[in-house]
Amino acid sequence: MRPHFLLSDLANQLNAKLQGDGNMIITSIAPLQSAQKNQITFLTSKPYKKYLSDSQAAAIILTESDLPFCNTSALVVKDPYLAYALLSKIMDTTPAPAENIEPQAVISPTARLGKNVCIGANTVIESGVVLEDGVVIGAGCFIGKNVHIGSGTRLWANVSIYHDVEIGERCLVQSGAVIGSDGFGYANNKGKWVKIAQLGSIKIGHEVEIGASTSIDRGTLGDTIIGNGVIIDNQCQIAHNVTIGDYTAIAGGVVMAGSLKIGRYCQIGGASVINGHMEIADKVVITGMAMVMRPITEPGIYSSGIPLQSNKAWRKTAALVMQIDSMNKRLKSLKRKIDRQSITD
């Protein structure tokens, strides 16, 4: 059964100005165009403003400038999207990954567990592990030797954390993530690959979120470092000895090569590929499907790749690209002729 909230209570928790009936019961959040009785919604962008006057929602989160167009109760805030984010946490009904220590969990007698730790069935906790207060480990996880997990951190089912990894407080790791796997390091001996032992580890800061099926490799020598407040989407690959600065956001499918250093407050678009052994400055935005082959030294927005076209247009573009070298040579030859003609004149 969903919890019920008084609209006035939600206004207080969101520090919003209440317009309308504060005794109204709110049961859930819904999109603006489909919200019904006892549901709350929000307006954050102009294309959805056309639904505002006809909305059947019990209440709408919006700005002061949009209030005159609202025909129902409202919560007036400066940033409706931020208010929606906070509201979603207040009304969240997601169950915990685990609710107690299940008897099917295998826990080393040398592991140290803080207060209110929960561990799901079939999870393995190896020797020397430290789980601080309030840590929640879902079913089927593997926590390797000497791992340290800070207070309030939650792991969903089937997460694997290799030995010696350090994870900070209030982090969230989604199912299938692998943290501390070997980096891709090999030497070539007459055509045969010789594996390089990965002797470093991983240090993850506080309030970091790691998406489902994302892999973060341990350092070869030294550590892979993920700063405070970093958010990483699903199915990303973070190679050995990468450093990611505080509060950087990384969308799904991003691939990072080894020894890359990314600054603070960056945003990396989905499916981007970033070369290793270089640095990216603070406050850089890289749009989706970019290929980053050189360092970025200044904040700003960077893009690469060709946007989607019809197949017919794309074939013409591809044909032109294939001729660029020839066209460049012809232009240089023409310039030399013009320069010689100018001299004789």
TrEMBL record:
Pathway: Glycolipid biosynthesis; lipid IV(A) biosynthesis; lipid IV(A) from (3R)-3-hydroxytetradecanoyl-[acyl-carrier-protein] and UDP-N-acetyl-alpha-D-glucosamine: step 3/6. PROSITE patterns: HEXAPEP_TRANSFERASES (PS00101). Pfam families: Hexapep, LpxD. Residues 24-89 form the UDP-3-O-[3-hydroxymyristoyl] glucosamine N-acyltransferase non-repeat region domain. Gene3D superfamilies: 1.20.5.170, Hexapeptide repeat proteins, MurE/MurF, N-terminal domain. GO terms for biological process: lipid A biosynthetic process. It is an enzyme of class 2 (transferase). Keywords: Acyltransferase, Lipid A biosynthesis, Lipid biosynthesis, Lipid metabolism, Repeat, Transferase. Catalyzes the N-acylation of UDP-3-O-(hydroxytetradecanoyl)glucosamine using 3-hydroxytetradecanoyl-ACP as the acyl donor. Is involved in the biosynthesis of lipid A, a phosphorylated glycolipid that anchors the lipopolysaccharide to the outer membrane of the cell. Homotrimer. Belongs to the transferase hexapeptide repeat family. LpxD subfamily. This is UDP-3-O-(3-hydroxymyristoyl)glucosamine N-acyltransferase. It comes from Hamiltonella defensa subsp. Acyrthosiphon pisum (strain 5AT). The lineage of its organism: Bacteria, Pseudomonadati, Pseudomonadota, Gammaproteobacteria, Enterobacterales. The gene is lpxD.
